[in-house]
User: Fold this.
Amino acid sequence: MSIVVVEPGPLAVVQDSGRPGLAHLGVSPSGALDRAALALGNRLVGNDDGCAGLELLFGGFTARFASPAWFAVTGAAGQIALDGRPMDLHLAQHAEAGAVLTIAAPAAGARSYLAVRGGIAAQQVLGSRSSDLLSGIGPKPLRVGDVLAVGEHPLAEVPLLDFVPVAEASAGVVEVRAHPGPRADWFTSAALEAFYAVEWRLSASSNRVGARLDPPRTPAHAAGVEQRPVPLLERAITTELPSEPMVAGSVQVSPDGRPTVLLADHPVTGGYPVIAVVATASLDAFAQLRPGQLVTFRHA
Amino acid sequence: MTVSVLQNGDRGLLAELDDLDAVLALYRALERTRPAGVIDLVPAARTIGVTVDPSVLPLSVVTNWLAHAVPEPPHAADARVVEVPVRYDGDDLAEVAALLGMRPADVVALHTASPWLVAFCGFAPGFGYLVTDHERLVVPRRATPRTVVPAGAVGLAGEFSGVYPRSSPGGWQLIGTTDATVWDASAETPALLSPGTAVRFVEAS
Assistant:
């Protein structure tokens, strides 16, 4: 059983639940950025939650099923079609051999997930099939013509469901919860207040390593009023921090005062102070933020 | 020794210690008494990070574990010593010797005679930061990092020595080269230089 990649779109990678437990060797946890979306897709086709599927950034994806397969598409809602027939998201669907699946760019959200009954049987590296884009461990991003093996069918049946309630990804301001970071006290109280008060904007340079956030835009007429604007997230302690362990969700603040939320492919240690740590329950939201979209932090 | 325990999100804690020796001593104790539910135990320069599965191990229990662990001194007798053969042909060997006011041969003699210990990993998978028991090989990083450092390059930076597990950019002062495989993702033990490993550099002919 296999799938042939006809067009991978901007970035298509194999992801499962990652390779946690190897941070002491310098290995990132990796895994699907929207873990709930991949897990739902897997459940819909009777797989274990952690089976490998495809993480598709901004759709534009076309693949041909070389053999009959059950599949489900979850996450960001792009129009999906099988041999040109529109299909529903969040539902197990059956494809005949030779059928062509297209997943268009989503109108909201950023990452769609394709789960296939049996899972994508890419080579395991350190116990996981995930692509780690920081260190290059695991399968490479998909290219035109790649043939993806599909694993053995699981014992579980394809569950009989005709509707799964799933909240659509928001196109507006996204609210996430965050705990005080281990170095929150390295920032001024004004900085801490600002961190939770302002609407941050997702930078286009964000990726699976981290979501970079830009401060709110200064209106053109206000620019130049202050010769050297103080960074929004000003530090109270300015000594250098010896590199320390980071987790997915750590919000590091670089010297220019910009926060970066570390995501699945994050470096295991970092030397910028962590002002906050995104609550585990809010972390998946960063998978679905689009460049320019606004995000606010609330106390967890 | 003082350990302060900092919250690091809803699944993690950070133990902060006075210095690297204290980190190494506590890491030894934690590694030996690691309870089920600990996902990652990560030493760094002044801190040890712990992440857990909170459904198995509540953070309150982990806090107690960190605060009450009895640091363990290095146990030299039973330690496995990894020997790393090095050809001391690094491009920066002469400059390192000049910085330290020694001859290149003295740098080699000191590097091979010193007992090294992997304090922690970082930068890349399998990149160990090795420390020794003296400060006679402390050199600054290169002012301009190299865009490509080959795999197996042996370097010095600050108080650390290390081996590049694969080709990457890097700013360490290069003193030699090893053919040892320091990282193999397909191996049972992927990293040759994991935290706590004792290392001896041996001059290869």
Observations:
- The domain at 81-203 of chain B is CATH 2.40.100.10 (Cyclophilin).
- Chain B has four helices and 13 strands.
- Chain B has a mean pLDDT of 94.
